[in-house]
């Protein structure tokens, strides 16, 4: 006998059917064969030669992102179908690992789950790192937030203040410095 009331069971079944319809509509509304289409055909361009490389990179990124989303949604649709099968068999709401009842609150949040919280399979999160990290050198000692202050250098925010004190080509301070410099060079030439 299921731990779910008839009303809870009906609510969960309705949620699963609604989710299944949404997922199926997603796949029906997509362009058929868009993954197999060439980049040229999908962008509508006659050639990719005249485009900036970043445009092609963006399009490639968008296509790979869409493929990953579709893969995830396809997996979710399989889980929804599996949950509906379990409902038909009278096994819905039981953990596939330990056989214990899955609380209604969990089923309400994730109606297609077939595992209790303790036995939820680990998501395979890749721990792969970019190959560039193998050849990168460590930053210099002291690199970070206050590195430039300790090194006696200024940052971009201080650059304007430093430049401003010298003035511009039209300011009196610059003209006076230019006149002094010209006078010094004239006196050296005369000697």
TrEMBL record:
Region (Disordered): 20-56, 137-191
Keywords noted in UniProt: Metal-binding, Zinc, Zinc-finger
Matches recorded under Pfam families: zf-dskA_traR
Keyword Zinc-finger tagged: yes
Keyword Transferase: no
Domain Zinc finger DksA/TraR C4-type: 90-118
Composition-biased stretches (Basic and acidic residues): 20-29, 143-156
Zinc finger (dksA C4-type): 95-119
Gene3D superfamilies xref list: DksA, coiled-coil domain
Biased composition (Polar residues): 40-50
Protein's name according to its UniProt entry: YteA family regulatory protein
Source organism of this protein record: Paenibacillus shirakamiensis
Origin organism lineage: Bacteria, Bacillati, Bacillota, Bacilli, Bacillales
